[in-house]
Amino acid sequence: LGIRTNRICCIGAGYVGGPTMATIALKCPHLQVDIVDMNEERISRWNSDDLPIYEPGLGEVVKACRGKNLFFSTDVKKGVEEADIIFASVNTPTKTQGVGKGRAADLRFIESVGRTIAQFANRSKIVIEKSTVPIKTAEAIARVLSANEAASGSRKNFWILSNPEFLAEGTAMADLDQPDRVLIGGQDQDAIGVLVDIYANWVPRERILCTNLWSSELSKLVANAFLAQRVSSINSISRLCERTGADVKEVSRAVGADTRIGPKFLNASVGFGGSCFQKDILNLVYICQQFGLEEEGAYWQQVVDMNDHQKVTFTSKIIQALFNTVTKKKIAVFGFAFKKDTGDVRETPALLVCDMLMKDGAIVHVYDPKVAIEDALQEFKYHDLEVNQSQFIFSTSAEEACDGAHAIVVLTEWDEFKKYDYQKFYSKMMKPAFLFDGRNMLDHAGLEKIGFEVHALGKAR
Ligand code: NAD
Ligand code: UGA
């Protein structure tokens, strides 16, 4: 290709850009990795001991590489100029206005990366889509780059690759260290080879899958859709279990023991959350519709609809059990993050559960080991949900949240929730003391022995 391959720049220092590039820096000491972002606060936190995201194991890797071959900066121009390999790891949220509002991906950030590269690139470069994007986005980036090239009369080459990320939050460092697969899509075998060689520093070559650009872009959306579909499927069955006397945990075990199905992602829950499942499925639905595939789009839409339904029915069950009134009742909410081992609250199911409880008059006392109340309030705001702060209180401990509460509602599966002295909590609560386990993670028989009225998911009372 005639380019140097020892300088990498990643545009976007978020949940993906940060851990992914830190891992590349760790595994490839011969490469220099620059991560740039326009968000000054984020970058200054990456350069401090107080990293902007919580991810087990991340701090150690950043500490080992920062200042050696890993650098964080707001200087996007310099980053683009100096690197020959540029990753775009910017956010691709759902559009909130205009055509495709509420479904299509908002590609303004990815397009802005294309324009930034067009503006500052001083020589030929490999441009890699790390963000999750709709199929054919590489074509749009290529057009932005080539149109600007033509206009400036220069003769640089840009090779576009798709390299979607499959890490999950909370286990990102382990996922990056030992990925099930790395996926690389592209049109130019030499450009693909450059990226394969980087990953081959620690990923066995047979796990590095190479495809055409469009298969790679689409596979990312499909992988998330399949994972989310499993959660919605088991959640739909949890309702049937509650009506019939079957136990969803036993059903999951029995079904998952079939090696063709497998045991993972079959935990019934209050609903899936996170920044990606919903947005990626909505995007898939929108793409199907764009191609006139109405039935196919409707099929995937059901996965999101079932998830919304699960959050509503779970919360309705709480209100119903508490004698159809939660007005002025203190409710202890255990966990606000969308899953354990992260402080991320994007699209967390806790948002709708708390909103519904508060609309019914409850005073919600949340305890989460990692979530900051500002982030929770920001997420309500993002969803245009009003919060009366006298009804939404963050407690500094689970015990404090339980003091005088009518119910405990478990919304995140943090390990520490299993270790608590529930006898002590029970003694401080109003009676009857209710416990709603939105993650089916606690010892229900033990809690009942203490005196709790326990409502498990997918199990008749
Ligand atoms: P994020 O919001 O945490 O980070 C994106 C960053 O990009 C932000 O800090 C933002 O300031 C920066 N940015 C946006 N436009 C920029 C520009 N033009 N110049 C410089 N900086 C810019 O997002 P994320 O969670 O890291 O997700 C990034 C992408 O990866 C998304 O497409 C997402 O779907 C995908 N993804 C996310 C996960 C996950 O677990 N969060 C996993 C796999 C894939
Ligand atoms: C998910 C995918 O697992 C990653 O492969 C993907 O890269 C990422 O989305 C992305 O594209 O952003 P993440 O959202 O971080 O990762 O976390 P998951 O572990 O997938 O959990 C998603 C949601 O589903 C959580 O709310 C979790 O609690 C819920 N879930 C998961 C269940 O309710 N039941 C399960 O059995 C599994």
Automatic annotation (TrEMBL):
Transmembrane segments: none annotated. One of its GO terms (cellular component) is nucleus. Keywords: NAD, Oxidoreductase. Pathway: Nucleotide-sugar biosynthesis; UDP-alpha-D-glucuronate biosynthesis; UDP-alpha-D-glucuronate from UDP-alpha-D-glucose: step 1/1. The active site is at C276. It holds the Pfam family UDPG_MGDP_dh_C. The keyword Metal-binding does not apply. It comes from the Eukaryota. Its EC number is 1.1.1.22. It is an enzyme of class 1 (oxidoreductase). Belongs to the UDP-glucose/GDP-mannose dehydrogenase family. This is UDP-glucose 6-dehydrogenase.
